[in-house]
Write a structure and sequence with these properties.
This is Olfactory marker protein. Helix content is 19%, strand content 35%. By secondary structure, the protein is an alpha+beta fold. It has a single domain, classed as Jelly Rolls. The longest helix is centred in the N-terminal third of the chain and has 17 residues.
Length: 165
C-alpha cells in the first residue's frame, strides 16, 4: 500500500505475500515427507517466518525513515532478498539474503507503551540498501521472522522514501 504525505514522501507498507509463503512452506513439507535434504546453500522457510514484499511505484528513491509498530512484546527481524527471486522457478539461496538485517523488539518486561528498540545504524543502512535496489526493480521480497511473542496481526511495518528530483 502506498501513502503520500504533503512533503511528497512515499510510504510503502510491507505486505505479506501469502502465495509465496505457502509455496515455501510446501517445499519444506515436501522435503520432510520424502526424506530428502535441502540443496547445498538453500534457505528453507522457518515456521515463524513469512515472505513479505514492497512494490515500488517509482525507481528513483532516497530512504527517509522506518515506521514500525508492534502491539505487545516480541522481536521482528526483516531480511531483504537481493535478487529478483521467483520461488516457482528457483529455490531461495542463503547468498541472496541481504545484510544488514533489520531488527525491532520490545522485551516482555517493557511497558506496552514503551518505544520499540532497534539497531539504528543497521536500520539506516538497510533502508539505504532497499532504496538502492529499488532503482533496478519494481518489487522486492523480504523474510520477516516473528519471535518472542510477536504476531503478524499486531505488526505494522513500512518505510518512507523521498523521490529523487
Amino acid at each position: 500500500m502506498e501513502k503520500r504525505s504533503c512533503t511528497d514522501a512515499i510510504v510503502l507498507e510491507f505486505r505479506e505475500d501469502v502465495a509465496l509463503t505457502e509455496m515455501m512452506r510446501l517445499r519444506v513439507s515436501s522435503l520432510q515427507r520424502s526424506g530428502q535434504k535441502r540443496q547445498d546453500g538453500e534457505r528453507l522457510l522457518l515456521p515463524y517466518e513469512a515472505v513479505y514484499r514492497l512494490d515500488f511505484p517509482t525507481q528513483d528513491l532516497s530512504f527517509s525513515r522506518w515506521y514500525f509498530s508492534l502491539c505487545g512484546h516480541g522481536r521482528v527481524t526483516v531480511t531483504g532478498i537481493c535478487q529478483l527471486w521467483t520461488p516457482d522457478l528457483t529455490h531461495l539461496m542463503t547468498r541472496q539474503l541481504l545484510e544488514p538485517i533489520g531488527t525491532f523488539w520490545r522485551n516482555a518486561e517493557d511497558p506496552e507503551d514503551s518505544p520499540l528498540k532497534s539497531l539504528e545504524a543497521d536500520m539506516q543502512e538497510f533502508g539505504e540498501r532497499i532504496a538502492e535496489l529499488a532503482k533496478v526493480r519494481k518489487v522486492m521480497y523480504f523474510l520477516l521472522a516473528l519471535k518472542d511473542g510477536a504476531e503478524a496481526a499486531k505488526l505494522s511495518c513500512s518505510v518512507e522514501f523521498t523521490p529523487q528530483k
